[in-house]
Amino acid sequence: MVSGENQYFIGNNITTGHCISKYFSQSLVIAHYFRQQEQHNRFVTRDDRPELHQLFDRFIHAVDSDTAMRIMQKLAQPWRSVVSQYPAYL
Predict the structure, then answer these.
(1) Phi, psi at residue 60, to the nearest 5°?
(2) Predicted pLDDT at 51
(3) Are 33 and 13 a contacting pair, CB within 8 Å?
(4) Average pLDDT by consecutive 10-residue portion of the chain (90 residues)?
(5) Structural domain boundaries in the chain
(6) Which string of DSSP letters, residue by residue, matches 21-70?
């Protein structure tokens, strides 16, 4: 977004809201909040990359829910350690 290559960002309400108000208060606004916390993980792909979208779909449908949960926890783990290590910056 900062470089002008993207027009939107999907993120966590708390950390995103803080970063926008601290660093981008004159240039960015939060356009939408979900009414309740989503309990699903989502991948966003570009329209011009259908092969990537199909790859994600095939992968997601091929794994059982326990394996999917372990994968999502592994993907989120590095972010948790950054947040706990540098909470003042978020």
Answers:
(1) -60, -40
(2) 92
(3) yes
(4) 66 72 75 64 80 86 82 65 48
(5) 1-39, 46-90
(6) HHH-TTT-------SS---S------TT-HHHHHHHHHHHHHS-HHHHHH
